[in-house]
Amino acid sequence: MERWIDAGPWPTVARWWSAQGRTTKLAVAVAAVFTVASMLNLMSASFGRMSQAALPAASTSTALTVAPAALTLESPPADADPAKNWASLKTWQGTGNRETEAFTVAEHWRVDWMFNPVQPGGILQVFIYHSNGRSLMNLAANAQKSGSDTTFWAGAGTYFLKVNSSGGDWKIGVQDLRNEIDSAWVSQSPVPAISVGEQATLTFRFRNTGKVAWRRGTASEVSLAFIGDDRRFDPRMAVDWPLPSRPATQIEDEIAPGELATFAFKVRGVAPGTYRIDLRPTMSSVGWLRAEGVYSEVTVR
User: Fold this and answer.
1) What does the alpha-carbon distance between residue 18 and residue 22 come to, in Å, rounded to a whole number?
2) Which residues, 6 or more positions from 14, have their beta carbon under 8 angstroms from its beta carbon?
3) Residue 133, Cβ neighbours under 10 Å: how many?
4) Which of 70, 104, 106, 215 can pair with 285 through a Cys bridge, CB separation 3.0 to 4.6 Å?
5) Which of 156, 85, 151, 60 minimizes the C-alpha distance to 113?
6) β-strands 193-194, 294-300: how paired?
7) DSSP-assigned letter for residue 47
8) pLDDT value of position 229
9) How far apart are CA 252 and CA 146, in angstroms?
């Protein structure tokens, strides 16, 4: 047996593997992961068919599970490409294993990672899962030594990462193309003048200038955030705001690219003066959208 190993293909394979670059090794690792996953799926399907033979027919009203769209590994874009305006969505760092919260991305996005082993045998693996919690989409990182790298992906959706790590510190970030998720101010209601105790409703409209729909009640919901301070605005003026820093969320259930979203909130006069409310749209899973210096003033008589 030992003579067969020494004379077989393994020394050649080992020399070939050592000569490969990081990108080739990652591609081979991804292929291996999905080969194993496919075999397990086939075994599971075969077992399922055998089990179903003894079960009664399922009701025709049972909902079908739709498989998520494919997630494709892309080549790194040219650094000088002016269209590549990356925006940071989420960043995590730590040691050991972790499952991140979900994040929503548009068609083109990236995963950046850094790994610093503090002992021999350290490893970092980062797996991308669909938000349904069952579908392993791809492998973003597979490192066994100190370093950093980026993998680029094509596939819009909501995902989370599973980090498998031991023997080192890691930092992982997700970035999206800013022109994929964007907004533009369109209009707002006139500056109100109210008396102490009186209320006024302020309305703002923004256009979805990105390529991803804004959906109310999901990770892609867009809110209007208060970005001012108490020197210009009295917090007691807020009337039924969802949060002290979030006067309003989109009224419509879904805003497709190119459509207009409406945001409305109320204020109450508490003391005479002129107050300023600085605002900026934000998406819960992404962060700030375009900064345009949007604000409104409220005069209290």
Assistant:
1) 10
2) none
3) 9
4) 104
5) 151
6) parallel
7) H
8) 82
9) 48
Q: How confident is the model at residue 151 (pLDDT cuts 50, 70, 90)?
A: very high
Question: Which residue is associated with the tokens 């919690």?
Answer: 133
C-alpha distances (whole Å) from 235 to each of 196, 230, 245, 269, 270 are: 15, 7, 10, 11, 10
239 - beta bridge partners? 266
| Nearest C-alpha neighbor of 184 from the set 84, 280, 297 | 280
The tokens for 164 are 């498998």
Q: Judge contact between 143 and 113, C-beta under 8 A.
A: yes
CA distance 77 to 44: 39
Is the pTM here over 0.70, yes or no? no
Nearest to 281 by CA among 255, 263, 260: 263
279-300 pLDDT tens trace: 999 987 777 888 889 999 999 9
Radius of gyration of the chain (CA): 26
- Tokens coding 253: 């259930």
Residue 283 tokens, joined: 């998406």
Phi/psi of residue 50, each to 5°? -65, -40
- Rounded CA separation 96/46 (Å): 35
Taking phi over 0 as left and psi of -120 to 50 as alpha, with beta for the rest, 240 belongs to left
CA diameter of the chain: 96
Q: Is the pLDDT of residue 84 over 90?
A: no
Token pair recorded at residue 270? 């508490």
Size (the chain), residues = 301
Half-sphere exposure of 114 (CA within 13 A, CB side): 8
Residues 6 or more apart in contact with residue 148 via CB below 8 angstroms: 112, 113, 114, 115
3-class DSSP state of 16: helix
CA nearest 237: which of 203, 279, 266? Answer: 266
